[in-house]
Design goal:
Layout: H1 2-53, H2 59-67, H3 73-98, H4 106-109, H5 126-147, H6 157-176, H7 182-192, H8 195-198, H9 200-219
Helix pairs in contact: 1-3, 1-6, 1-7, 2-3, 2-5, 2-9, 3-7, 5-6, 5-9, 7-9
Length: 226
């Protein structure tokens, strides 16, 4: 239970500071600032709860770890529950903070939800969103599993993972807002409703498939250190 609670706390931190920066200060810090918020929050969770749960804070990462043979199926389900609960709680708290501004409207400003198509960010189409979310998540999981294998340099995994998440956001914010994390997409979508809920399937399915693909590289030992 301690591992599952740690995943709840870690995902709460990631979503609150990452999505929160986009909602509260996105117009001031821009894409670089939002990307940095996600990357730095990821680093913080790794060093804070990594010794307890490994700090997956992402159902796609846990799925990749299970495929790679690094965790049991039941444990993965417990991680998913903690991660989704943490993301939902963070989105709720963010909404409670955001509505304190007279200039904020959930309908007009949203809650940092992911999406695609006309009217969203760069207006990229569904195939572009699918390709980005699949391959970005696969790369992210490869970095996580590779930097945490036994022969990797000790103590540096958190920096490698956080920097990778930052780079993914720099690349992808204008495409989908960047999910690569089903829990991150789920939390804001629940409260934003409408189009965010209609498009949520993509951010549940393709990051998960990307996580599976990343895990297979280590299951088959193609990227596992000998």
């Amino acid at each position: 239970m301690k591992k599952y609670f740690a995943e709840l706390v870690g995902t709460f931190i990631l979503v609150l500071f990452g999505v929160g920066t986009a909602v509260i200060a996105g117009d001031k810090v821009g894409i670089v600032g939002i990307a940095a918020a996600f990357g730095l929050a990821q680093v913080a969770t790794i060093y804070a709860i990594g010794p307890i749960s490994g700090s997956h804070v992402n159902p796609a990462v846990s799925l990749g770890a299970w495929v790679a043979g690094r965790m049991k199926f039941g444990e993965m389900i417990g991680y998913w529950i903690g991660q989704c609960a943490g993301a939902i709680l963070a989105a709720w708290l963010l909404l409670m903070i955001a509505v304190g501004s007279t200039g904020y409207s959930l309908a007009a400003n949203g809650l940092g939800q992911d999406g695609w198509g006309p009217g969203y960010q760069g207006g990229y189409n569904e195939p572009s969103a699918i390709l980005f979310e699949f391959f970005a998540t696969m790369i992210f999981v490869i970095v996580i599993l590779g930097s945490t294998q036994k022969t990797a340099p000790a103590g540096f995994a958190g920096l490698a993972i956080g920097i990778t998440l930052l780079a993914i956001h720099l690349f992808g914010i204008h495409i989908t807002g960047v999910s690569v994390n089903p829990a991150r997409s789920l939390g804001p979508a629940i409260f934003a409703g409408g189009q965010a809920v209609k498009q949520l399937w993509l951010f549940l399915v393709f990051p998960s498939l990307g996580g599976i693909a990343g895990g297979l590289f280590f299951r088959t030992r193609l990227l596992a250190a000998d």
